[in-house]
Amino acid sequence: MHTVERCINRLRQWRGLATRTDKRVIAYQAAFHLAAILIWARR
Questions:
Q1: Residue 25: alpha-carbon gap to chain centroid
Q2: How many domains is the chain built from?
Q3: 13-22 pLDDT, tens digit each
């Protein structure tokens, strides 16, 4: 549970994901995957 919360907090740092500025689901998913890959690569 704690790991999931930390992951969500890191994803919130990405403004586009936090505010959901993308209207299309595919663009939002792409931004989500890109952010997740970048977070994972930094570790």
A1: 13
A2: 1
A3: 777 776 676 6
